């Protein structure tokens, strides 16, 4: 009976293993870049996490100092300005210098490591503008 064997095959094959992000889909290089084993490893040095969170820790210290000197209104006003500056962004495929954020933090007159070695024209990751906009808008 052909109908009986078809139903047996249908019941024996599990379709839960194959999904939209299943076995047959490759790594999306345009959105995620190249895979790296180093990014999956734990921090190799105790100071690595501290260095990654340096700006956040510095902001917290500055807010605490500002609160002690001028009161609660000064850090709240500065945090609102930070949020407003973070919301204004360029299109995802255009590089932004974040000059307004540098001015708020007082880094506009400092030359740092990222100012010299973080040139977007030398970046290895550059995606297709249309695909990046569609991804940001949730159309893909």
From TrEMBL:
<comment type="similarity">
    <text>Belongs to the POMP/UMP1 family.</text>
</comment>
<dbReference type="GO" id="GO:0005737">
    <property type="term" value="C:cytoplasm"/>
</dbReference>
<dbReference type="InterPro" id="IPR008012">
    <property type="entry name" value="Ump1"/>
</dbReference>
<dbReference type="Pfam" id="PF05348">
    <property type="entry name" value="UMP1"/>
</dbReference>
<dbReference type="GO" id="GO:0005634">
    <property type="term" value="C:nucleus"/>
</dbReference>
<keyword id="KW-0143">Chaperone</keyword>
<protein>
    <submittedName>
        <fullName>POMP protein</fullName>
    </submittedName>
</protein>
<dbReference type="GO" id="GO:0043248">
    <property type="term" value="P:proteasome assembly"/>
</dbReference>
